[in-house]
Design goal:
By secondary structure, this protein is α/β, with parallel strands linked by helices. Helices cover 31% and strands 30% of the residues. It contains six helices and 15 strands. Strands 1, 4, 5, 6, 7, 8, 10 and 12 form an eight-stranded mixed beta sheet that branches. Strands 9-11-13 form a three-stranded parallel beta sheet. A hairpin with a 4-residue loop joins strand 2 and strand 3. The two termini are 35 Å apart. The chain binds 1-O-pyrophosphono-5-O-phosphono-alpha-D-ribofuranose and uracil (URA).
Length: 208
């Protein structure tokens, strides 16, 4: 497998348990997705490049560090990836945000693209957001779109992955780093992750 990190921090694991619970309603579900995304973003940005700067404190001069290079770009995959945006922007408020709209055809499970609006991502580090990595089709497709625009690097940040999707994503894009909070058991016959959390988009937006 490629560069896969399972973020098993206790706070993330605790929140993930609440997220999986079928009795968790949309309001709490949305808050949890956002909080988990924020905690995962802390891990996913651990290797951001820094540069030295000199600033004046009220009493002296300090040689200190700031993040260097162009600003980060986050790209949520609609719809469910939208639930992660607030959390990551809380940590990186100046990041750019692009959107890729994909839905899975319920019969073929193949991703169907209906929207793509990306900022200038040339030479930027891009983090793709989607809580669910099931067959991997949506993430693979979104990352292929992003690669055409020449980003500096791409990371994928999901919450729950199925082994099938993780394997497919690693094979299709071996050059990206992948962050997930859980690697579940398998997919069911309808392409849903087991035990998973159900349909992430429906639970975030209260649809069915
Ligand atoms: C869900 C989820 C992912 C995709 C994962 O979206 O948010 O984008 O399925 O499945 P895959 O790995 O097999 O491609 P869905 O197609 O349900 O669209 P929605 O978020 O608009 O409801
Ligand atoms: N999409 C979801 O929202 N949930 C799954 O389990 C699989 C794909």
């Amino acid at each position: 497998m490629g560069n896969v990190t399972i973020t098993n921090h206790p706070l993330i694991q605790h929140k993930l348990t609440l997220l999986r619970d079928k009795n968790t309603g949309s309001k709490e579900f949305r808050a949890l997705v956002s909080e988990i995304a924020m905690l995962m973003c802390y891990e996913a940005t651990r290797d951001l490049p820094l540069k030295e700067v000199e600033i004046e404190t009220p009493v002296s001069v300090a040689k200190t560090r700031v993040i260097s290079g162009k600003k980060l770009a986050f790209v949520p995959i609609l719809r469910a990836g939208l639930g992660m945006v607030d959390g990551v922007l809380a940590l990186v408020p100046s990041a750019r945000v692009g959107h890729i709209g994909l839905y899975r055809d319920p019969d073929t499970l193949q991703p169907v693209e209906y929207y793509c609006k990306l900022p200038d991502i040339e030479e930027r580090e891009v983090i793709v957001l989607d809580p669910m990595l099931a067959t991997g089709g949506s993430a693979i497709d979104a990352i292929s779109q992003i690669k055409k625009r020449g980003p500096k690097s791409i990371k994928f940040m999901g919450i729950i992955a199925a082994p099938e999707g993780l394997d497919a994503l690693c094979k299709a894009h071996p050059d990206i780093d992948i962050f997930c909070a859980a690697l579940d058991e398998k997919l069911n016959d309808h392409g849903y992750i087991l035990p998973g959390l159900g349909d992430a988009g429906d639970r975030i937006f209260g649809t069915k």
